[in-house]
Design brief:
Elements (H helix, E strand, L loop, with lengths): L5 H41 L6 H18 L9 H30 L7 H4 L4 E7 L3 H14 L3 E9 L2 E10 L2 H23 L2 H9 L19 E2 L6 E8 L3 E9 L2 E20 L5 E12 L5 E7 L4 E3 L2 E10 L3 E8 L7 E6 L3 E6 L2 E11 L3 E3 L20 H4 L11 E3 L3 E7 L5 E7 L3 E3 L2 E9 L7 E6 L7 H10 L2 H16 L4 H19 L18 H12 L5 H26 L9 H17 L6 E9 L2 E9 L2 H21 L3 E9 L6 E9 L4 H15 L1 H6 L1
Parallel strand pairs: 4-7
Antiparallel strand pairs: 1-26, 2-3, 3-25, 5-24, 6-7, 7-8, 8-9, 10-11, 11-24, 12-13, 12-23, 14-15, 15-18, 16-17, 18-19, 19-21, 20-21, 21-22, 25-26
Helix pairs in contact: 1-3, 3-6, 6-15, 9-13, 10-11, 10-13, 11-12, 11-13
Length: 715
C-alpha cells in the first residue's frame, strides 16, 4: 500500500504538461508538413508529370516553363524538396511515436488507485453517499458490477484511523490512446510505402551507380548499358508497348531529361488485343491475351489482362494501361488543294516517315495515327461550320464531331468510320498535324469530307468541309478548285455566263457584265491584279469571299454594300457554276443536271473554296486502304510498398475511429469506514478525455448502480 504526496503529484503533473506541450508542437509541425504535401500532390495531379519538355513549352510558354522547371513541378513526386518534406515528416512523426509510446503504454497499465480523497472532490463529475455495507463487501460488489459492464478494475486496501478503507479504481476506453499510436504509425508507414513505390530507387541508382537518362532515338536494343536498370531493381513503374504477334521485355521509365530502360525478368508476347463495343459504338472492353515468357526458367504462361484485372509474375504486376497502333500499314491518296500538285499515292506504316518533293519544295510526311473506330455525337444544330479558321471541335461542330463525353446536350452517337492522322514537316522543321476521315459524313443536310488541321499539339483541330460529287467522291470539288486556278477556264466560264445571262442584250450591257463577272471570279480566285492593294486583316492569303468583301469595303459606299453584295454574289455563283460545268467537260463527264442536289453541292462548294485558301498545305491525303495492327500498352510495376501502404491505411482507419469514437474514462470510488462500525462514506468521481453529454448520462447511471444498490435492485 502506498499513499501519494501532494509534492509528487505536482511534479508528475508538471512533467505531463511539458510532455503534452512537446507533443502538441510536434503534431503542429507534422500537420504543417502534411498540408504542404497535400498541396504538392494536388499540383502533381493537375499538372501531367514527366511529359516531354516541348509539351510544357507549348502549354505554358518559355518563361513559365523555366519557372515551373526550377520548382520541379514537372516531377513533383521525385523533387528534392518533396522527398525532403516526406523525410522530415517521417522522422518527426517517428520521434513523436518513440517519445510518446512508452508513456502511453505505461499509462495503460496504471489504474491510479493512489489518488487522494481530496483530489476526487475536485472532479466535475463527483458524488457522495452513505452505505450500510462493510467496506470490503461494498468494494467487492462495486468491482463486480464494473467488470460486468466492461471496466477493468483494481481494488486497493488502505488503513485509516477509523479502520480499513477501500479504493476501487476502474478504467475503460484504453483503445483511445492506442488509436493515437495507430494513426501516427500509419502516417509513417504510408510515407515509407510511398517512397518505396516512387522513383527514389531509380534516382538512387542514377546518383550512385552512374545511370543516366537516354535522350536519343533508335532501337531499344541499341541503347547503351548506362541507360538500363537491372531486372533486380526492387521497385519501379514503367510502360511497355507490345505489338500483336511480337514480344518485349524492356519497360520505359519516363524521366524529366529522357527515359530510363528497365529490364524485366520475363518477356510479354501479345497474342491478341481485344476491344468490344456497345451497340452505339462506344467501347465496352479492352483486354489483351498474352503469354509471359520467363527468362530464367523458360516457362511460358498464358494470361489475360483487362482493365482493373492485372496479371502478376515474379512480384511484378502487369496492368492494361491503354492501347496504341502497332505499325498499321496505310495507303493514302494525295489530293491537290492547288494547281501546282498532281495526284499520287503513297503508303507507309504508322510511326514511319517518308520524303515528299515538288521541285524545290521538300516536305516530310509523318504517319502518326490510325483510328478504325470514331464514335461521334450527331445532334442537329444550326451551326454553319464551313470556315476552317473558326470551325473547330469545341465550337461549331462539337455536337457532330466532338467526343461524346464533351457535349452537354442530347447525344446521338454514331460511328463515322476510320480516320488517319499525319504530319507535314517543312525543311525548317516546322510541322502541322492533319486529321482526315476516310468516309464522307452527313452534316447539316450536306454530305462532306472533313479535313482537320492544327498548328500545335495543344490546339484543337480546325475542320474544313469539302462536298462530295454524285459519285460520293471529292473529285468534283478538286476539279472545280483546279479550274478556278486556271485563268483561261475562268475567262471561258465568264463568257458562257454572260452569254446565258445577257444574251441578246446590248453590247455595252454584255461588256459591263463581262467586266463585273471577271472581276468577281478573279477576286474569288485570289488572282485579281489589284488584290495586293486590298486590306488583308492579318489573312495569310487573300482570296475567296474574304477578297470579295475586302474589294467592296474599299470600292463600294457602305450604304450600297448590301444591295451590291447580293448582286455580286449572284453573279459569282453563276460564273462558278459554269466553271464547274467546264471542269466536268474537261474531264470528259456529262454536264451536271440543274436540281437540288447540284444546288446543294455548289452552295457548299463556294463556302469550301473560300475557306480552302486558309488550308495551310498544297495537298491533302485521303485514306484509301489500311492493314490494321494493334498494340497494347502495359504498365508494369514492382511495388513492395503497396502492402505497407495498405496496412498503413488500415491502421489509419482504426486509429482515427479509435480517437474519435472511443472515450477514455477513469472511475474511482473511495469507501471510508465510519467510527464504531456505523456504515461507510462512499465518494465517487469520473474523468474522461472529452467533455460530452454521454459522460453526464453515464455518470448518473453508474451513481445509481454503485451508490444506491437498493434502487437498482428495485428497478
Amino acid at each position: 500500500m502506498s499513499v501519494s504526496t501532494g509534492g509528487f503529484e505536482l511534479q508528475r503533473g508538471t512533467q505531463t504538461l511539458r510532455a503534452a506541450v512537446e507533443l502538441l508542437s510536434s503534431m503542429r509541425f507534422a500537420i504543417a508538413l502534411l498540408t504542404v504535401i497535400c498541396i504538392a500532390s494536388v499540383v502533381g495531379t493537375v499538372l501531367l508529370q514527366n511529359e516531354p519538355i516541348n509539351n510544357y513549352i507549348n502549354q505554358f510558354g518559355p518563361f513559365w516553363y523555366e519557372v515551373f522547371a526550377a520548382l520541379d513541378l514537372y516531377s513533383v513526386y521525385s523533387a528534392w524538396w518533396f522527398l525532403l518534406i516526406l523525410a522530415f515528416l517521417v522522422v518527426s512523426t517517428t520521434l513523436c511515436i518513440l517519445r510518446s509510446t512508452p508513456k502511453i503504454l505505461h499509462d495503460l497499465k496504471l489504474f491510479k488507485e493512489n489518488i487522494r480523497e481530496q483530489s476526487l472532490k475536485a472532479f466535475p463529475h463527483k458524488a457522495q453517499a452513505e452505505l450500510a455495507e462493510a467496506p470490503e463487501a461494498a468494494a467487492q460488489r462495486i468491482g463486480r458490477t464494473l467488470v460486468a459492464s466492461g471496466w477493468k478494475v483494481r481494488l486497493q486496501r488502505r488503513e485509516t484511523p477509523q479502520g480499513a478503507g477501500w479504493m476501487v479504481a476502474a478504467k475503460a476506453g484504453a483503445a483511445n490512446k492506442l488509436g493515437y499510436i495507430a494513426a501516427h504509425s500509419a502516417i509513417v508507414m504510408i510515407c515509407i510505402g510511398g517512397l518505396l513505390d516512387g522513383d527514389m530507387m531509380v534516382r538512387a541508382q542514377m546518383w550512385f551507380n552512374g545511370k543516366t537518362a537516354f535522350t536519343g532515338g533508335g532501337l531499344i536494343a541499341d541503347v547503351p548499358e548506362q541507360h538500363r536498370l537491372s531486372d533486380r531493381n526492387p521497385t519501379f513503374r514503367g510502360n511497355l508497348l507490345v505489338t500483336e504477334g511480337t514480344r518485349a521485355g524492356t519497360a520505359i521509365l519516363p524521366q524529366p531529361q529522357g527515359v530510363i530502360l528497365q529490364e524485366l525478368p520475363f518477356d510479354i508476347e501479345l497474342k491478341r488485343f481485344i476491344v468490344e463495343y456497345y451497340d452505339n459504338g462506344m467501347p465496352r472492353l479492352f483486354a489483351s491475351d498474352i503469354v509471359i515468357h520467363d527468362r530464367y526458367t523458360g516457362e511460358a504462361k498464358e494470361a489475360r489482362v483487362e482493365v482493373n484485372h492485372p496479371a502478376s509474375h515474379r512480384g511484378i504486376q502487369i496492368y492494361q494501361s491503354s492501347f496504341d497502333d502497332g505499325g498499321s500499314l496505310v495507303r493514302l491518296k494525295a489530293v491537290p488543294m492547288g494547281s501546282a500538285v498532281h495526284p499520287f499515292t503513297v503508303e507507309g506504316r504508322i510511326g514511319e516517315t517518308t520524303a515528299l518533293t515538288n521541285g524545290e519544295e521538300r516536305l516530310q510526311l509523318e504517319f502518326t495515327g490510325l483510328r478504325v473506330i470514331n464514335v461521334e455525337n450527331f445532334v442537329n444544330r444550326n451551326d454553319s461550320g464551313a470556315d476552317v479558321r473558326r470551325v473547330d471541335l469545341r465550337q461549331a461542330i462539337e455536337s457532330r464531331l466532338g467526343s461524346a463525353h464533351k457535349t452537354v446536350t442530347e447525344r446521338e452517337l454514331r460511328n463515322v468510320g476510320p480516320s488517319v492522322t499525319y504530319k507535314l514537316r517543312d525543311a525548317a522543321g516546322q510541322a502541322r498535324e492533319y486529321h482526315n476521315y476516310m468516309l464522307p459524313i452527313d452534316l447539316d443536310g450536306s454530305r462532306v469530307y472533313v479535313l482537320g488541321v492544327r498548328d500545335t499539339p495543344t490546339e484543337e483541330f480546325r475542320y474544313l468541309r469539302v462536298p462530295v460529287d454524285e459519285n460520293d467522291a471529292i473529285d468534283g470539288f478538286i476539279r472545280l478548285r483546279a479550274a478556278l486556278a486556271d485563268p483561261a477556264m475562268r475567262r471561258e466560264a465568264v463568257r458562257r455566263y454572260v452569254q446565258l445571262a445577257a444574251g441578246g442584250q446590248r453590247e455595252d450591257l454584255q461588256q459591263a457584265l463581262t467586266v463585273s463577272t471577271q472581276r468577281a471570279i478573279d477576286l474569288f480566285a485570289g488572282q485579281d491584279p489589284d488584290i495586293d492593294t486590298l486590306p488583308r486583316r492579318n489573312m495569310p492569303v487573300l482570296g475567296g469571299l474574304q477578297a470579295v468583301s475586302a474589294f467592296m469595303e474599299v470600292n463600294v459606299p457602305e450604304a450600297e454594300r448590301e444591295r451590291a453584295g447580293e448582286v455580286l454574289l449572284r453573279i459569282l455563283n453563276g460564273a462558278l457554276f459554269e466553271l464547274y460545268q467546264l471542269s466536268r467537260e474537261d474531264a470528259g463527264l456529262p454536264p451536271a443536271e440543274r436540281g437540288e442536289a447540284t444546288a446543294a453541292f455548289m452552295t457548299q462548294a463556294v463556302l469550301s473554296l473560300s475557306d480552302a485558301f486558309f488550308y495551310p498545305a498544297p495537298l491533302t491525303f485521303q485514306l484509301t486502304d489500311f492493314e490494321h495492327v494493334q498494340a497494347s500498352v502495359f504498365q508494369v510495376a514492382r511495388a513492395p510498398g503497396k502492402t505497407i501502404v495498405y496496412l498503413g491505411c488500415l491502421l489509419l482507419i482504426i486509429g482515427v475511429f479509435a480517437m474519435l469514437y472511443v472515450r477514455e474514462r477513469r472511475l474511482w470510488v473511495w469507501l471510508s469506514p465510519r467510527e464504531a462500525g456505523q456504515g461507510l462514506q462512499a465518494t465517487m468521481a469520473l474523468s474522461s478525455n472529452r467533455k460530452l453529454l454521454d459522460n453526464d448520462r453515464e455518470f448518473d447511471r453508474l451513481k445509481e448502480r454503485l451508490l444506491h444498490p437498493s434502487a437498482e435492485v428495485n428497478r
